[in-house]
Amino acid sequence: MISPDWCRMMAAYNSEMNRRIYAAAGELPDAARKQDRGAFFGSLHATLNHLLWGDRMWMSRLAGWEKPAGGISGSTALYDDFAELRAARMQADAAIEAWASGVTAEWLAGDLSWYSGATQRDLVMPRWITVVHFCNHQTHHRGQAHCMLTQHGVKTGDTDLLFILDLEALGLR
Q1: 4-163, what's its fold?
Q2: Which of 1, 12, 24, 44 has the lowest tally of Cβ within 10 angstroms?
C-alpha cells in the first residue's frame, strides 16, 4: 500500500511537471498546440484539457470537488484558450497538493465507491489503488504531451522525479 508521504510526493511531482510542460507548451503558437499529432486525444492542447478533466473527475471522487461536465469524449474541450487552461491547471495543482497534505493512512486504507461512466457501472475499490491510478493517469498523459513537445523541438528539462523534487523540503529525506 502507498503512504501519505507518497501522495504528497506525487502531488508535488505532478505540479512541477505541469509547470514544465505548460512552460514548454507556452513557447508554441496556438496552432501548433492544437495541431493533431496522432496522440490518443490528437493534439497537445486536447491532451492537456483531458488531463485537467481527468484530475477534476478523480478529485470529485476522492475529495468532493465538483464533477466536471461531460464524459471522456468531451474532456478535450474544457478550455479553448491556452492561458485559461494554464491558469485552471495551476489552480488544480495547488488544490491537489493541499488535498495530498491531508491524506492519512487510515483514509487510504478505506474503500472508494463511485459510478464509472467509462465502464457504465458502480465500482468499489481500495482508495489507495484509485490514488495510484490517479497519479499514473497524470504521468501517462504528460508523457504523451512531452512527446508532442519533443516533436515540435521544445524541451521541458529533466523529468526524473528524484532529480527535480526537493525531497528534504517535502520531509522525505
Answers
A1: Four Helix Bundle (Hemerythrin (Met), subunit A) (1.20.120)
A2: 1
